[in-house]
């Protein structure tokens, strides 16, 4: 290692240089605090041995300035002092020191402390490398989710969707599109894991959803194909809880498939919950399924209604007292939303309830119109 030795006593610097060079280290020196900062900038040492009491600028201030200049890097600072009182020890650590050694310096103890700091430094470098690679993965996953979002229709009157991530990236996915025959297909998915692990599943799911929707495939066929693909790529223990919807705005009919998500809710224009669509299927990617395994729920007379799909992160949002929003909170927010756009009112209610607290799980909400019309006024 390259070690900066800073001490105003030349004899101490000579002793330390001798000890360190015998230990295989390269040594650079400074006789006071100001010189130490200049040498630090020029030589970029791996470690600093720093005397506390020096003329001009003391060791505490040198350590503080070194810490400020390091930004995200880590260079261990070991203080050298003849004072063994608690106040001195505390000031050494508070000013940015990582260890303290008493003068006169014990050579064996010094080299042992340096080896310990080398291990910490090695772990830090590994952590920084891991952080760098993780950030690259996050950027890739952000790009993936961004490209998926861009493939959706720009505007479906009355439709609103929102995802609030619990981490750097969501593990939830919302998709919607229209078929050539005029149906609206929508999907809300909650993958196990976050970031890149969720993006790995999101790519084939989105590809299948958009490709088959735009070819007018039945909802059952899309479910079977997505499940088949996830079974191929997911290891055991990874799956995708999801709900898929087929809405016929011309005739007011809606079909719902729910595999592992909270019950979807059909809401009337006067803000009453007309029907619940609980999970009656396994999540996607767990077992093989065919058309005969698929349980669809129908709501044939849903004119003017809106369907709410959401992940469990929404109902599990907590307030400052640790109380969950719950389905009762969601129903209460629906019933009290009269006079306001439903999607905006629900989003506002969840945010107000959580009081700015970061959610424990991703929050996703999709409000889908069963029949959209310009004459529905505030409802749309």
Walk me through what this model shows.
The chain has 380 residues and is α/β, with parallel strands linked by helices. It folds into two domains: 127 residues, Response regulator (Rossmann fold, 3-Layer(aba) Sandwich); 229 residues, PPM-type phosphatase domain (Phosphatase 2c, domain 1), CATH 3.60.40.10. Helix content is 39%, strand content 22%. Helix 2 packs parallel to helix 3, helix 5 packs parallel to helix 6 and helix 6 packs antiparallel against helix 7. The C terminus is likely disordered.
The strands making up the biggest β-sheet line up spatially as: 2-1-3-4-5
CATH superfamily of the largest domain: PPM-type phosphatase domain
Structural class: alpha/beta
- The percent range for strand residues is 15-25%
Task: Figure out the total of helices.
Answer: 10
The radius of gyration over CA amounts to 31 Å
Instruction: Give the CATH architecture of the largest domain.
Output: 4-Layer Sandwich
Beginning-to-end CA distance, first to last residue: 67 Å
CA-based shape: elongated
CATH class of the largest domain: Alpha Beta
- What is the CATH topology assignment of the largest domain? Phosphatase 2c, domain 1
Task: Tell me how many strands there are.
Answer: 15
Q: How would you state the average pLDDT, rounded?
A: 86
Order of helices and strands: EHEHEHEHEHEEEHHEEEEEEHHHE
Q: What is the share of helical residues?
A: 25-40%
- Low-confidence parts lasting 5 or more residues at pLDDT below 50? 374-380
The biggest sheet, with number of strands, parallel, antiparallel or mixed sense and barrel status, is: 5 strands, parallel
């Amino acid at each position: 290692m390259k070690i900066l030795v800073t001490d105003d006593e030349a004899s101490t610097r000579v002793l330390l240089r001798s000890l360190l060079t015998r230990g295989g280290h390269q040594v650079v020196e400074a006789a006071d605090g100001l010189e130490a900062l200049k040498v630090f900038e020029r030589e970029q040492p791996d470690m600093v041995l720093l005397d506390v009491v020096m003329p001009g600028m003391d060791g505490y201030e040198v350590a503080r300035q070194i810490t400020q200049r390091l930004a995200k890097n880590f260079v261990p600072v070991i203080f050298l002092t003849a004072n063994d009182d608690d106040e001195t020890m505390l000031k050494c650590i508070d000013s940015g020191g990582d260890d303290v050694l008493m003068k006169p310096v014990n050579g064996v103890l010094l080299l042992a402390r340096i080896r310990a700091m080398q291990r910490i430094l090695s772990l830090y470098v590994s952590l920084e490398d891991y952080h760098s690679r993780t950030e690259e993965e996050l950027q890739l996953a952000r790009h993936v989710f961004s490209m998926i979002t861009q493939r959706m229709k720009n505007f479906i009157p009355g439709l609103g969707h929102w995802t609030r991530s619990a981490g750097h990236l969501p593990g939830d996915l919302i998709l919607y599109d229209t078929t050539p025959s005029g149906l609206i297909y929508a999907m809300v998915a909650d993958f196990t894991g976050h970031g890149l692990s969720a993006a790995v599943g999101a790519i084939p799911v989105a590809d299948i959803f958009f490709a088959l929707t735009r070819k007018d495939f039945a909802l059952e066929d899309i479910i079977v194909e997505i499940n088949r693909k996830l079974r191929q790529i997911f290891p055991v223990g990874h799956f995708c809880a999801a709900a898929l919807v087929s809405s016929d705005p011309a005739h007011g009919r809606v079909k719902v498939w729910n595999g592992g998500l909270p019950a979807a809710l059909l809401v009337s224009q006067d803000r009453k919950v007309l029907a619940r669509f609980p999970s009656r299927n396994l999540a996607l990617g767990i077992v093989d399924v065919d058309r005969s395994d698929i349980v669809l729920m129908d709501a044939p007379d849903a004119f003017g209604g809106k369907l709410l799909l959401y992940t469990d992160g929404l109902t599990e949002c907590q307030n400052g007292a640790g109380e969950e929003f719950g389905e009762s909170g969601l129903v209460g927010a629906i019933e009290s939303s009269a006079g306001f756009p439903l999607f905006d009112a629900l989003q506002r209610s969840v945010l107000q309830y959580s009081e700015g607290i970061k959610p424990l799980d991703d929050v996703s909400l999709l409000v889908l119109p069963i029949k959209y019309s310009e004459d529905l006024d505030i409802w749309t």
